[in-house]
Design a protein that fits this description.
Distance between the termini: 38 Å
Number of helices: 6
Structural class: alpha+beta
Helix content: 55-70%
Shape: elongated
Oligomer: single chain
Number of strands: 3
Mean pLDDT: 94
Radius of gyration: 19 Å
């Protein structure tokens, strides 16, 4: 005999974000699906860096790094500051730092079991 899900569904439905917010969340996670962007984010997790330093670290061209940084900046995952002619990039806030840290914690925990 099937059981009644009415109360559960009502409670969950009232807590569920809008479709637009869920689509935005999905888009945010898609940004992490590119290994170059993840490498850049992890590098910036360690220290703010200029484009040329990131390019050297990852063995890529500055234009390729700049392209990915633009995508990350448009998504508010990284920010920058100018010092003379050099622009330094850094993680935009602690939320980005937490996403990266939590992702690694999940992976490490998974490998330990």
């Amino acid at each position: 005999m099937p059981h009644d899900h009415g109360e559960l569904l009502l409670r969950v439905k009232t807590e569920l974000p809008t479709d637009e917010l869920l689509a935005d969340l999905s888009d945010l996670f898609k940004l992490f699906a590119d290994s170059t962007r993840v490498k850049i984010l992890y590098a910036l997790f360690e220290s703010e860096m200029c484009v040329c330093a990131i390019a050297e670290l990852l063995g890529m061209t500055q234009s390729a790094i700049s392209h990915q940084l633009r995508i990350l900046k448009d998504a508010n995952l990284v920010a920058n500051r100018r010092e003379g002619k050099t622009i330094y990039y850094f993680l935009s806030d602690d939320h980005v730092r937490t996403i990266i840290a939590q992702g690694f914690e999940h992976l490490i925990e998974k490998h330990d079991h």
